[in-house]
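Input/output pair, single chain:
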Amino acid sequence: MTESLAEAGVEQWRVQNRAVKELMEEHEWFEPMVVVLGKGIVKTAPWGLMFRVIVGAILSVTDLGTDLLMLKQFADGGEKTATVRDLQLASLVASIVLQLLIVLIQNRRKGVNKLTRESLVVLTGMKAPWDAYRVACGAEQEKDTEIDPLMEMVFSKCAEMFAESIPGILIQLSAILGTLESAGGVVSLTAYTSLAVSMLTTGFVSATISYDFDVDPHKRAFNPGFYGYVPDAAFGRILVLVTLMGISACQVLIKSLFLVVLESKVERWVKEGWAVWEEEEPEWFSDRWKELVPVYMILAKGEIGLGMGGEDGEDEVEEERRKTKTKTKKSKVRPEGEGGFDVEDFKREMKRRGSING
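Output:
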């Protein structure tokens, strides 16, 4: 990856200077020599690659820290926030597991000691700064490893983005909207900060991957119709990178907000219609369908705490489902234009009327 970045820099230099282009065309040895020099510059330069990996590491650590703070808030909320607490914890665990898997694949031939050290780095939450340090120092790919340090960092960031950052946005948006909808609900500054950091982390990772792929000379030569949207001028490149980051962050926010609002609408629809469906019993309102409905969508808000779940609420729902199953097994007589009623009640009523008339 370092060589690709050096080649990208040399290519930009060649495009911007006609004299350099003519020199490279006339002397074939000149371009490879400049690429070798560029590799050394990329490794030691305090800008460009180093700046991006350090910013990415800071965002990753901050994202993890704010997620842990939110996890503590959810845990302090008790049963009212049990579901979001479990989801937040699951996303963090999934991110750690994926990063451990990357470490295992990368170092499976390096021995137990190396594998243990790298695993401890992941478990302590220091994977992002450790990868950034190695890349900034220009570490080369070690023997018996699968990829170089920069690609390992990219894979780790992608795992973090898909398992922690994006799910964190969904979870925190759901909790924030649920709190705002409740009476007197106040959202803490930590919640908004955690949401913003998750958005920035997702946008930054997505933007840097797109940027690095586009400026790669090999990819531009292979598919010039797709790659090449990043301009050659330095200011233009910075502007494109910042724009990509903003677009990615906003896109994730919009999609996440849509999913959360859609879930809220479905929840309201289920809660408002459940009693009616139990009475009218439409064909699609089967036992199988009822089992697929989440617990918090059945009970009214407040019964299980902001619709977030809880053991008492789950027991109550299960009891209600058992009652509903018993009701559906009874025969119903449904005269046209009237509601259904039990056959046994109908017989008793007819017998009573007969005795009165007699």
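The CA atoms of residues 69 and 249 lie 21 Å apart. The radius of gyration is 30 Å.
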